[in-house]
Amino acid sequence: MNSSKPFVEINYNTDLQKICDPFIKESGVSVFVKREDLNHPLLSGNKYHKLKYNLDEAEKKGYKTLLTFGGAYSNHIYATAAAGKIFGLKTIGIIRGEEHLPLNPTLSFAKECGMRLFYLNRKSYRKKHEDEIINLLKDKFGDFYLIPEGGTNELAVKGCSEIINTIDIDFDYICCPCGTGGTLAGLAAGIHSVFGNADNKKKAIGFSVLKGAGFLQENIRALLNSYLNKESGNWQINLDYHFGGYAKINRVLIDFINNFQSENNIPLEPVYTGKMMFGIYDLVKKGFFSKGKTIIALHTGGLQGLPGLSEKIKKLSLRTE
Ligand SMILES: *Cc1c(COP(=O)(O)O)cnc(C)c1O
After folding, report:
1. Which residues have C-beta atoms less than 6 Å from ligand 1?
2. CA of 300 to the centre of ligand 1 (A)
3. Which of 147, 262, 291, 309 has CA atoms 20 to 30 A from the CA of 78?
4. CA proximity to 86, closest of 162, 1, 23
5. Class of domain 47-151
């Protein structure tokens, strides 16, 4: 990576911002937001951490092209396209579903970065990690370094585990939203590596943004088993705050996000971080965290997706219920 440094350095010391709104103040717990949304203007949030060792690996093995998968609003597609541009690698984005023109803000950014976009119908997309489709893509695009959907693999777990090293206060819980669960697996692995078994009280808690995501349990366990050679036993995933499914939003969520932003001056988006924060506040309300505990909410970024959601949000905000 030395030959082609990012044009803006990654900020490894993002703020740990204390939440001081009246609800949290009166609750007896402390909540901090780790502002990874501010770690880089283009590779923001968890996506740089997930890509970092994959970029190293691609370079080490001499690959010139990255290929990855995502939906039309994918923050991972956005980040991979930006990483390709920054590190001088070609990028190919395999997008679920049909092309819609004009391109939404996420895909038009990806294209501006030089990413080649290729659309797979939903049926083929479901089989995207199978040999049949991979071979088809190799015939079409030549050799490439494959990054799975959402960027989740063992190297992503390694990258995300390092987030724990950057937290310089004592804490009891660290929370993140979950799409594929790679980030949560990384946080659990990081706690395990930094604090070992001596500290079996620190926990990573994930909030699924997908409906019916019981399968994440198994995926995360498998990721941890292959990365640590064992289960770390220091994590859990909450399945109750998906708001109807991926990218499904409602008025309650939008009101919460707007209120949170005006009280704390921290922007959230409704696909990932808004759902996590709503979940944290609800668990605080229900007394899930005992008094005196310190909770860190990882701001995983994703704010780039807001322009693409603005119509949807505006409609919800105008509707009087
Ligand atoms: C991609 C993304 C996630 C999901 O991360 P996983 O490792 O797939 O669970 C969470 N938050 C934001 C903002 C994201 O863009």
Report:
1. 45-46, 75-76, 150, 152, 177-183, 272-273, 300-302
2. 6
3. 262
4. 1
5. alpha beta
Domain boundaries, the chain: 6-42+158-318, 47-151
For the chain, what is the mean pLDDT? 93
Nearest residue (CA) to ligand 1, atom 10: 177
Which ligand 1 atom sits nearest the alpha carbon of residue 180? 8
CATH of domain 6-42+158-318: 3.40.50.1100
Q: Does residue 171 register a pLDDT over 70?
A: yes
Output the pLDDT for position 198. 59
**pTM beyond 0.90:** yes
* Whether the Cβ atoms of residue 133 and residue 127 lie closer than 8 Å to each other: yes
Q: State the Cα–Cα distance between residues 186 and 103, nearest whole angstrom.
A: 33
pLDDT single digits (tens) 215-249:
999 999 999 999 999 888 899 999 999 999 999 99
